[in-house]
Amino acid sequence: MLARGSGPEQRTRLAVQWRQISWIACWIALCAVEALPACPFSCKCDSRSLEVDCSGLGLTMVPPDLPAATRTLLLLNNKLSALPSWAFANLSSLQRLDLSNNFLDQLPRSIFGDLTNLTELQLRNNSIRTLDRDLLQHSPLLRHLDLSINGLAQLPPGLFDGLPALRSLSLRSNRLQNLDRLTFEPLASLQLLQVGDNPWECDCNLRDFKHWMEWFSYRGGRLDQLACTLPKELRGKDMRVVPMEMFNYCSQLEDENSSAGLDIPGPPCTKASPEPAKPKPGAEPEPEPSTACPQKQRYRPVSVRRAIGTVIIAGVVCGIVCIMMVVAAAYGCIYASLMAKYHRELKKRQPLMGDPEGEHEDQKQISSVA
Ligand SMILES: *[C@@H]1O[C@H](CO)[C@@H](O)[C@H](O)[C@H]1NC(C)=O
Ligand SMILES: *[C@@H]1O[C@H](CO)[C@@H](O)[C@H](O)[C@H]1NC(C)=O
Ligand SMILES: *[C@@H]1O[C@H](CO)[C@@H](O)[C@H](O)[C@H]1NC(C)=O
Ligand SMILES: *[C@@H]1O[C@H](CO)[C@@H](O)[C@H](O)[C@H]1NC(C)=O
After folding, report:
1. CB within 8 Å of 104: residues ≥ 6 apart
2. Which ligand ends up closest to the CA of 149?
3. Pick from 160, 179, 178, 177: which is nearest to 168 by CA?
4. What is the bridge-based pairing of β-strands 222-223 and 228-230?
5. Pairing state of beta strands 44-46 and 200-201?
6. Do residues 84 and 105 make contact, with C-beta atoms less than 8 angstroms apart?
7. To which H or E segment does residue 307 belong?
8. What is the pLDDT of residue 285?
9. pLDDT score recorded for residue 260
10. 125 C-beta closer than 6 A to ligand 3
């Protein structure tokens, strides 16, 4: 009876154990499947933090088999130069992407197009010279963007239009000479801006950005030093302490520009100037064409027009006066010669018959007296 009774008990125990084992095995298998989506060759993958670390491997291309669930992708210290536009396709869970210390020079406009959850993008120490306006338009959650140590000479207007959440932005050590205020206005959450170590030209082109910087500081934003490189008088000075009065001349320039802008003959001047210079290189080496052109453009609207008007009016008046003088002179001459002739004829007649009128009058006078 014991044997009979212990039989089913053992069986149920075994069944329970079997079920537990199979459940654990299944769980392990599931975990393996979850973690397995292939860690790219020689990268380190952390299945808990969903971090893929492929840094310092001398990679020249982004591994193609990145797990779609990757949250952090580290590709710093590699040899990436040109990336295809699909390098980060489908990585919509990616939050942190580090591409620092590579040789990237250009980024396809849609390379970050799928990274809708991206919050941090590191592009420090590459060779990026230009950025596409639409490069960051699909990552509205971006909070940190590092573009320092690159070759950027200018930022396309609208580059930051889709980044209302950006908190920190670094543009240190580039080749920027000026910045456009409108590019920075969409950055409503910006708290830290680094712009140091650029060849800033503190002239009229930077004036509006100075206004923006003042507003940014007033709002509580932190900004590092923007030291002028040009003009000479301001070299080494921080743009923020240069008084606004230094830029009063800009509005005068703008006025001149706008009045010159009404006159269209700008382009023909620049187009025409090389043409006459080429046909007569040996004949007359006149240093006119290129240098005289912009001056003409600038003074044409006011003084030259006025001068031409004055010349025309003066010419017309002079002409009329001259004609009148000639007419008067001719009339005078003719009158004088006629009178002279008449007098001569009179004198010729006088000795023969005397003055007939005078005689008559004398006679009349005599008769009246008589
Ligand atoms: C991205 O996902 C789509 C569909 O999910 C797939 O057809 C495509 O091949 C994937 N692209 C890459 C580069 O993995
Ligand atoms: C993006 O992030 C949010 C919050 O972290 C998350 O709920 C969402 O699933 C993520 N989207 C993708 C495609 O992973
Ligand atoms: C920039 O990257 C190069 C290699 O990519 C490295 O040799 C250099 O030290 C880096 N410079 C800085 C300032 O990080
Ligand atoms: C005036 O116009 C010239 C060219 O048309 C331009 O280079 C310059 O920046 C303008 N100056 C101002 C103050 O707008």
Report:
1. 80, 81, 82, 83, 123, 126, 127, 128
2. 3
3. 160
4. unpaired
5. unpaired
6. no
7. helix 305-353
8. 42
9. 65
10. yes
Tell whether the model's pLDDT for residue 301 goes beyond 50.
no
Structure tokens at 68: 């779609």
| CA-closest residue to ligand 4 atom 4 | 257
Query: Crossing angle of helices 248-262/289-299, nearest 10°?
Result: 90
What H or E segment, with its residue span, contains residue 73?
strand 72-74
Q: How far is the CA of 257 from the centre of ligand 4 (A)?
A: 6
Mean pLDDT of the chain: 78
SS3 state at 352: helix
Sheet holding 168-170, edge to edge: 44-46, 51-53, 72-74, 96-98, 120-122, 144-146, 168-170, 192-194, 222-223
Mutation choice for ligand 1 from 90, 111, 115, CB with most ligand atoms inside 8 A: 90
What tokens appear for 368 in the block? 């009246």
Residue 92 CB–ligand 2 contact under 6 Å: yes
Question: Worst-scoring range by mean pLDDT, 31-45, 171-185, 273-287, 294-308?
Answer: 273-287
Pairwise CA distance, residues 91 & 67, whole Å: 8
CB burial of residue 298 (10 Å; 0-12, 13-18, 19+): middle
Q: Where are the domains of the chain?
A: 36-198, 266-274+289-365
pLDDT at 145: 96
d(C-alpha 276, C-alpha 64), whole Å: 59
Smallest CA separation from ligand 1 atom 7, residue = 90
- Asked if 91 and 64 count as a contact pair (C-beta separation under 8 A), the reply is no
- Tokens coding 33: 């499947």
Q: Over 90: is that where the pLDDT of 74 sits?
A: yes
Q: Is 253 in the pocket of ligand 4 (CB under 6 A)?
A: yes
CATH of the domain spanning 36-198, picked from 3.30.310.80, 3.80.10.10, 3.40.50.300, 3.40.50.720: 3.80.10.10
In the predicted model, is pLDDT for residue 288 greater than 50? no
pTM: 0.63
CA-nearest residue, atom 4 of ligand 1? 90
Specify the residue with its C-alpha closest to ligand 3, atom 2.
101
State whether the beta carbon of 173 lies less than 6 angstroms from ligand 3. no
- CB neighbour burial string for 309-345, b if at least 16 within 10 angstroms, e if fewer: eeeeeeeeeeeeeeeeeeeeeeeeeeeeeeeeeeeee
